Amino acid sequence: xxxxxxLKNAEVFSPKPVGKKDILxxxxxxxxxxxxxxxxxxxLDIINASGxxxxxxxxxxxxxFLGGGGEGGFSTRTPELDPRDCIVNxxxxxxxxxxxxxxxxxxxxxxxxxxxxxxCGLTTFIYTGSYRVxxxxxxxxxxxxxxxxxxxxxxxxxxxxxxxxxxxxxxxxLRIVADARVGGMLSGKPGIVNFHVGAGRKGIEYLFKIAEExxxxxxxxxxxxxxxxxxxxxxxxxxxxxxxVIDITALQPFEKEENFGPVDxxxxxxxxxxxxxxxxxxxxxxxxxxxxxxxxxxxxxxxxVAALLHTVKLAVEKGLPQELxxxxxxxxxxxxxxxxxKGKIEKGYDADIVLMEDFHIKWVISKGKFLMxxxxxxxxxxxx
Length: 384
Ligand code: FWO
Ligand code: ZN
What we know:
Blueprint (H helix, E strand, L loop, with lengths): L3 E10 L3 E10 L2 E6 L10 E4 L4 E4 L1 E6 L19 H6 L2 E6 L10 H13 L3 E6 L13 H7 L3 E9 L9 H18 L4 E6 L7 H9 L7 E4 L5 H12 L4 E4 L12 H10 L6 E4 L5 E5 L5 E6 L3 H12 L4 H6 L3 H6 L16 E5 L2 E7 L2 E5 L2 E2 L7
Parallel strand pairs: 1-4, 1-5, 6-7, 7-8, 8-9, 9-10, 10-11, 12-13
Antiparallel strand pairs: 1-2, 2-3, 5-16, 14-15, 16-17, 17-18, 18-19
The protein binds ligand FWO and zinc ion (ZN).
The site of ligand FWO has 16 residues, from strand 14.
């Protein structure tokens, strides 16, 4: 495989639809997106992408790299992420987190797994902390973690309004957000706090208070699981009207959309003109527990990265504009994470490109490297 690759005649969604184009890749970058590119260099890889659509590699901002779970005892812990799942589902950039179990799941292991996934050709980042406040950290301070640990881009998933949270006070949450913001400023990172929002009645009350009563910019507040209920999502849309971005958890391939779910949320966001303020993440490898009214876990499933494209497909089949739905898993998360060169198929951007036909992925290119060729995942995998 050479350093120069030419994808011919793809229907490009950048995510804006730009029609049939050739895409020239040089090294790990997109060099040109044009019609009829002809280039003459040795070792040129030419891929005939006729009949395929090209979308930017998907960006998943909430993945339990190590697995999570444990809410029903040790036997309910969930398995760690297999990089092949990411490639098969077109996810090329991921942010890893710890969840309920911040005791037996460590930040050191999370960092190591993020490096392992990077060795397999993906782009990874992590949140410091876990559900609990005060947050577990590498260095004793979330601000130092963000400034000194290269892959740390923020704090999360900090649980609020949930029977599994540490019942943090508003002041504790405010201090974490303030430290994340300055940590981000000092290191050129987003300095976001990814909040796990449970079903509790206080919803994202704390986040509104921070946005409305302090100098902290709303972009540092990134609540997830916001389509957990219609009521919570409506509260989330009000947060978007203040300039915030909210994240919803994708519908897992094995789930049925009950009374309210992510696709309903996407329709509601679209109808309110707020689709650009919504991202979708998978909660992959996290546990999706079900509790009875006494708070006992009565069952659980495991999240999958497959949920991202699955939810995009369902939303498109429901008639929502493909380019706007694609933005929720490409350009919008890239903006939240302040990844200047991700989330678009455009000159100068990282060559993270997925070629697919009817949502069946045929080729995956990540940072200019083939990770999937004609439907087959490419070895070598340094991990597995
Ligand atoms: C969500 C991750 C939940 C873990 O509420 O937060 O439990 O640590 O593995 N998952 N607790 C899933 C719902 C959004 C369906 C997590 C989990
Ligand atoms: Zn969560």
